[in-house]
Every structure is written in structure tokens, then in C-alpha cells.
Specification:
Elements lengths: L5 E8 L5 E9 L18 E7 L29 E7 L13 E9 L1 E6 L4 E5 L3 E5 L3 E4 L6 E9 L23 H6 L2
Antiparallel strand pairs: 1-2, 3-4, 4-10, 5-8, 5-10, 6-7, 6-9
InterPro entries: Cupin_2, OryJ/VirC-like, RmlC-like_jellyroll, RmlC_Cupin_sf
Protein name: Cupin type-2 domain-containing protein
Organism: Cladophialophora yegresii CBS 114405
């Protein structure tokens, strides 16, 4: 069954300074491993990259902006905030434990999903639940019988230090989710 589309409306200003809609598009989930942005197949989750700011605070609030939909821009980017929808299909066999240098806001839009932390704890999230992920090592696991859709907003952070050692934690490599051409264009 194909994953649902997302309508994305982007606003801006016309030459006289009036607020206008500059883009109104239906976005389809993309395979995060494919540089061409083809639809996900099998157990691969669908990523719908909605927007990436240029900088924090954002500098791409006027004029042109780079559309990151269907692009391999990595999970988090230290040069701006990333907003995306992630569709976790059934059966969910990906379950990659990862850590990013960011604060992530994960909102369950539909379905049920379980967060697994490196201490072995598992927490179930249902529609409307929110997780504020602060650089912890975690995985998302869909153990239900239906797909789960989440909205993630990833804000880059300072390095996260291990309290036991005082050294920064290693981040999970995400080169397989990145395409340098798209990353450069989005900055």
C-alpha cells in the first residue's frame, strides 16, 4: 500500500511586500537511501523532507529557498533546522539505533511506535504523543499492525558530553543518508 502524501504550503512575500503563497505542493514519501528520491519499498521507511532552514536563526525567510523534498540531506544538519515526516511501515525491521547532535521533537501523527533507549527501556508513543530527544542513543520500532507517521523537527546542538567521561559522545555515521550536492545546495 502506498504511503500517504503530505500537502506542503510555503509562504513568502511578493515584490510589494504582501504575504503570498509561493508553493503549494503534494509531497510523496521518498526512500532516504536513494539520491533520486524514489518511493520507499519493502521495509525502508518513507522520509518526506518538508523544509530546512539556512542557519539558526534562519536566513532563508525571504527570497529563494532550496527545496529539500526527496533529497539526501542527512538526519540532522549543523547549519539549520530540518523538518520531516517519517513513515514507519509494517513489518518494521529497520530499527537503527542512532544518536544525533541535536534536539529532536518527534510528534506521532498517526499509529503507534516504541522508542528503545540504550539502557534497554522501551516507551510506547501513540497519536498525539511528543518526544523531546536530547542527543540520546535510541531507536524507533513499529511493533503494531499499522504504519506509523511521525513529524520530526531536528534542531542542531552543541556536542553532547558523556557525564562519566566529560568527552563528547560519538554520533552515528549517516553518510548513507547524505548526498554532498544536496547538502551544499541546502546551505
Amino acid at each position: 500500500m502506498p504511503l500517504p502524501t503530505t500537502r506542503r504550503v510555503v509562504t513568502g512575500h511578493d515584490q510589494s511586500g504582501k504575504s503570498v503563497i509561493i508553493s503549494d505542493t503534494s509531497l510523496t514519501p521518498a526512500n532516504p537511501l536513494d539520491p533520486a528520491g524514489s518511493p520507499p519499498e519493502g521495509i525502508i521507511p518513507g522520509f518526506t523532507n518538508l523544509f530546512k532552514t539556512t542557519g539558526v536563526p534562519a536566513t532563508n525567510v525571504q527570497g529563494p529557498w532550496y527545496d529539500v523534498h526527496g533529497k539526501k540531506i542527512g538526519l540532522v544538519d549543523q547549519t539549520g533546522v530540518v523538518a520531516r515526516i517519517v513513515d514507519c511501515t509494517v513489518p518494521d525491521e529497520v530499527n537503527i539505533t542512532h544518536r544525533t547532535q541535536s534536539v529532536d521533537f518527534g510528534i506521532v501523527l498517526s499509529g503507534t511506535i516504541t522508542m528503545v533507549l540504550d539502557d534497554g527501556s522501551e516507551t510506547v508513543f501513540r497519536e498525539g504523543d511528543v518526544c523531546v530527544q536530547r542527543g540520546t542513543d535510541h531507536a524507533w520500532k513499529n511493533v503494531s499492525t499499522e504504519s506509523c507517521r511521525m513529524l520530526f523537527v531536528l534542531v542542531p546542538s552543541v556536542p553532547i558530553e558523556n557525564p562519566a567521561t566529560g568527552r563528547a559522545f560519538e554520533m552515528t555515521p549517516t553518510a548513507h543518508l547524505e548526498d554532498e550536492e544536496h547538502i551544499k545546495a541546502a546551505r
